[in-house]
Design a protein that fits this description.
The chain is mainly α. It is built from two helices and no strands.
């Protein structure tokens, strides 16, 4: 959040160099959190997103 606040401060202050640096920090944080960059969830498990629970192996409530 510090980097995002720095972007706002740079924009309000009209400082393009500080904005560029702050945006680079935001990008680095997002990559570190897994929001950008290579995927980390390639475990080849089936994706049950956007399925009704009753149509998945989780329907019986015994998983997880």
């Amino acid at each position: 959040m510090d980097a995002r606040r720095a972007v706002g401060a740079a924009l309000r202050g009209g400082n393009p160099a500080a904005e560029k640096e702050a945006r680079a920090c935001v990008h680095a944080a997002k990559v570190a959190l897994g929001e950008r960059g290579p995927v980390w969830w390639t475990d080849d498990a089936p994706d049950y997103n956007r399925h009704l629970v009753k149509n998945t192996p989780y329907a019986d409530g015994e998983h997880g």
